[in-house]
């Protein structure tokens, strides 16, 4: 879902374009999604198709729809290796949906930042060229194992890139794929809240604010059991360690760039 105003998203991601787009409450695969990437040394906003098509695919109609890529194997799979090295992007969003499986019945939940505002999913993009000169830009969202409260809903979740790591993820010319993959970790406990919503979200034709209304009474945002509070404290310590690792990686990437600057820009 993309609910924030175009200006709020532009302010967070820092691109020069001034796109105007309506809120989307139910973005489906193959529909356009916003991404932010590096082109000629600066951030660029673009709308691309959600569902990655690698450049070597001959007929997209016969190729499996790739909407998510597992972070654990993204550097190994042929469909994603080149994009991990050269075409990383951020996918602006205000949250996502998760379906909890309860004995064969899947109940939808809305997952959003507790403090509101847009966030960034880690993504990859590609350009597919057809035999008759047709061109299509596509993207995929990278996922990781869910933890804590979210793991009780679904085992996977999008990788969320914090603002202080945007450059680390986007700068393909200075940061290699293995270094960038250090960002593949669950969101810090307490960042996101989840609540059950109506099954109306299951129908891609539905796209309105009613989709994110709670299905029934939900506990207050700050309510948590003693076990949940203890778990959050432990995961907060884990997150502090992750933040320190990102800082080290950022300094490492910057130092390496000064010693051996790359002359190959991230492809546009």
Description:
- The chain is globular, with a radius of gyration of 19 Å.
- It is of the alpha+beta class and 268 residues long.
- Helices cover 23% and strands 27% of the residues.
- It has helices at residues 6-13, 81-86, 148-151, 166-170, 177-180, 226-259, and strands at 32-39, 42-50, 68-70, 88-93, 96-102, 105-113, 119-129, 135-145, 156-158, 192-196.
Question: What does this entry show, briefly?
Answer:
The chain has helices at 6-13, 81-86, 148-151, 166-170, 177-180, 226-259, and strands at 32-39, 42-50, 68-70, 88-93, 96-102, 105-113, 119-129, 135-145, 156-158, 192-196.
Average pLDDT, rounded to a whole number, is: 86
CATH superfamily: SOS response associated peptidase-like
Radius of gyration of CA atoms, rounded to a whole number: 19 Å
CATH topology term? hypothetical protein yedk fold
Low-confidence stretches: 255-268
The name of the CATH architecture is Alpha-Beta Complex
- Domain module count: 1
Shape by Cα distribution: globular
Number of helices: 6
Portion of residues within helices = 10-25%
Which structural class is indicated by helix and strand composition?
Answer: alpha+beta
Largest sheet: 7 strands, mixed
């Amino acid at each position: 879902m993309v609910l924030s105003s175009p200006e709020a998203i532009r302010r967070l991601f820092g691109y020069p374009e001034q796109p105007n787009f309506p809120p989307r409450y139910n973005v489906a695969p193959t529909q356009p999604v916003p991404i932010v990437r590096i082109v000629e040394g600066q951030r660029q906003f673009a709308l691309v198709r959600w569902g990655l098509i690698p450049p070597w695919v001959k007929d997209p109609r016969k190729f499996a729809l790739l909407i998510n890529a597992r972070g654990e194997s993204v550097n190994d799979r042929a469909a994603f290796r080149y994009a991990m090295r050269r075409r990383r992007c951020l996918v602006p969003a205000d949250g996502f949906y998760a379906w909890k499986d309860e004995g064969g019945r899947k109940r939808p939940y809305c997952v959003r930042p507790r403090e509101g505002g847009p966030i960034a999913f880690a993504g990859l993009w590609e350009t597919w060229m057809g035999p008759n000169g047709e061109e299509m830009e596509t993207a995929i969202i990278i996922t990781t194992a869910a933890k804590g409260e979210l793991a009780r809903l679904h085992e996977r979740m999008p990788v969320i890139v914090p603002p202080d790591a945007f450059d680390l993820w986007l700068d393909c010319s200075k940061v290699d794929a293995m270094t960038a993959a250090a960002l593949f970790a669950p969101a810090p406990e307490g960042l996101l809240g989840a609540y059950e919503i109506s099954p109306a979200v299951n129908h891609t034709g539905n796209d309105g604010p009613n989709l994110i209304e709670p299905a029934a009474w939900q506990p207050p945002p700050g309510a948590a059991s003693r076990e949940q509070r203890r778990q959050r404290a432990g995961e907060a310590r884990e997150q502090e360690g992750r933040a320190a690792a990102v800082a080290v990686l950022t300094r490492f990437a910057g130092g390496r760039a000064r010693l051996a600057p790359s002359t190959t820009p991230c492809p546009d």
